[in-house]
Each structure stands twice: as structure tokens, then as C-alpha cells.
């Protein structure tokens, strides 16, 4: 089972529906007891960095998540803003992130001035290394992006996927029990379905 963290940011229904399509029991919850007892967690999110961190703080979820992820080392997947909140900080705001991974969030600055920000639409990814969440990821897989900021990992060993949009950026990472996707797998049809299936079937 996967518990999708409900902290007031993002459309949780589409993620829940996609997980159910791949045969995974999924629920949404903001209850600390439910979250602490989850086999796996998914941290979604859209919108601004500071607003996301404020929502986690107001709901008292930061210490719960730190215990789950850092102390107990149970698997967690961040999507879009959820991925960014796992880092130390963001150019978008002034509030510190969760700090689970040695990374920062930077503004997208394409080298090609004709490319628009936010980066919105389908784009291919390049696989940097093997990982259980990337099992059966085919060459040329395309995912749906909507973002104006991207994660910059300081440790190259944490990078799983990169994407080019007027310059290469890190579009997926893994650090131990922590994964993040900048794109929206729940909106990426068969490609995203495969990655969520891999997370649902993960044994850790």
C-alpha cells in the first residue's frame, strides 16, 4: 500500500487513480498515525516552495516525515514540488526545505531564449544509472513536465535521470530510501504508469 500525503497542495486524485490502475492500494491521508504506519509514502505537490513548506509545518507533518524518512529509512517518492521540498532550499523562496538530500532548487534559465518558462509539456529523459524504479524504462520514454524551477543535486551519485530544456537538468534522483521525479508520472500515460508500478512493487 502507498499513502499519498495530503497537505493541501496538489491534485491527489489523479495520483491515487493511477496507482490503483497498476494494482496498488493507495489512500490519501494527513493523519500522522496513518503516515507513520505506511509501507511507502508519496509526497506530491504543485505550486510555490514556501507555500508547500508552510502547509507541511501547519499540519505538524515535518517531524512525522523526518522520523519516517530519516530515522526509520522507509521509502518515499516526491513528485514535482514534492521532489523540490526534499532539498535544502529553493531560489523561489526563503524557507528551508526538508533537507533530506544534498541539493538545491534553481530557476530554469534556458540557453535558448525562445524556450518559455515554465517548462510545460512532454519531454524525453536520459537514464544516468540503473535503479529499481526505472525497471523497464524504455529508451525514448517521455514524461509530462510543468515547472519553472528544477533540482540541482550536489552529489552526482544521486542523479537517476536528466532532461534537456535549453540545458540539461536533473529530472529524477535517488538518495537511499528517497526518490524524486520532477515530472508528473500520473499524467505521463504508459511511461509514468510503469514508474509508479515499480514504486508500488518496491521491496525495501
Automatic annotation (TrEMBL):
Positions of the catalytic residues: 80 (nucleophile), 184, 186
EC number: 4.3.2.10, 3.5.1.2
Reaction catalysis annotation: 5-[(5-phospho-1-deoxy-D-ribulos-1-ylimino)methylamino]-1-(5-phospho-beta-D-ribosyl)imidazole-4-carboxamide + L-glutamine = D-erythro-1-(imidazol-4-yl)glycerol 3-phosphate + 5-amino-1-(5-phospho-beta-D-ribosyl)imidazole-4-carboxamide + L-glutamate + H(+); L-glutamine + H2O = L-glutamate + NH4(+)
Pathway: Amino-acid biosynthesis; L-histidine biosynthesis; L-histidine from 5-phospho-alpha-D-ribose 1-diphosphate: step 5/9
Glutamine amidotransferase domain location: 3-199
Subcellular location: Cytoplasm
PROSITE patterns according to UniProt: GATASE_TYPE_1
Any one GO cellular component localisation term in the record: cytoplasm
InterPro entries (alphabetical): Class_I_gatase-like, GATASE, Imidazole-glycPsynth_HisH
Keywords of the record: Amino-acid biosynthesis, Cytoplasm, Glutamine amidotransferase, Histidine biosynthesis, Hydrolase, Lyase, Transferase
GO annotation terms (biological process): L-histidine biosynthetic process
Domain of life: Bacteria
Pfam families cross-referenced by the UniProt entry: GATase
Any one GO molecular-function label of the UniProt entry: imidazoleglycerol-phosphate synthase activity
Subunit structure: Heterodimer of HisH and HisF.
HAMAP family in UniProt: HisH
Function statement: IGPS catalyzes the conversion of PRFAR and glutamine to IGP, AICAR and glutamate. The HisH subunit catalyzes the hydrolysis of glutamine to glutamate and ammonia as part of the synthesis of IGP and AICAR. The resulting ammonia molecule is channeled to the active site of HisF.
Name of the protein in its database record: Imidazole glycerol phosphate synthase subunit HisH
Organism of derivation: Vogesella indigofera
